[in-house]
Write a structure and sequence with these properties.
By secondary structure, the protein is mainly β. The chain is 0% helix and 43% strand. The protein starts with 5 loop residues before the first strand and ends in a 5-residue tail after the last strand. InterPro entries: AIDA, Autotransporter_pectin_lyase_C. This is Autotransporter domain-containing protein.
Length: 172
């Protein structure tokens, strides 16, 4: 396929096991299970040159997604994602709801109006909770390697609201 193809998952439709790469996009109004995302962040975070990835729309649900290096999942207002794994170099951008995300070196951006619950932040993972966003029940297992004042960029960073956070050994 040529790069940049768009696949829409219609409301009421279920797509299992899709693999998204090569700047392709998956627009989700229905439900997806076990998607693997390898594209969408090639140019870094918040770069308008990015294209592709998975975009979960209002009423859409993405379950058990794996986001790899250069992969991006965008959860828009009214959309939801559950049981997502974000590996090193991947990102999840949340304007809607995301529950039980595991950050295995990846990054979760929680934007104003976005709500997360049960995010687990492992080594080299980062959760950035922006103003107007909420994060509940996060578990932080990283961020304090080298001491509490070390210049690390992983862990949980909060400008919004974080409740019921658990910070384990080496967490910040």
């Amino acid at each position: 396929d040529a790069p940049g193809n768009t696949r829409t998952v219609a409301a009421g439709e279920v797509v299992n096991g899709a693999v998204i790469g090569n700047h392709d996009s998956q627009i989700v109004f229905g439900k997806t299970n076990n998607t693997v995302i390898n594209t969408g962040l090639e140019f870094g975070a918040d770069n308008d040159d990015n294209s592709g990835g998975q975009w979960v729309q209002t009423g859409g649900v993405a379950n058990q997604t794996t986001i790899n290096n250069s992969g991006l999942q965008g959860v828009l207002a009214g959309g939801s994602a559950t049981d997502t794994t974000v590996n090193s170099g991947g990102g999840q951008s949340v304007h809607g709801q995301a529950s039980d995300t595991t950050l295995d070196g990846g990054t979760q951006w929680v934007h104003s109006g976005g709500i997360t619950s049960g995010t687990i932040i492992n080594k080299d993972g980062a959760q950035l909770v922006k103003a107007g966003a909420q994060a509940t029940g996060s578990v932080v297992n990283t961020g304090a390697q080298g001491g509490p004042d070390a210049e690390n960029n992983d862990g949980q960073w909060v400008a919004g609201t974080a409740t019921d956070t658990t910070i384990n050994n080496d967490g910040r």
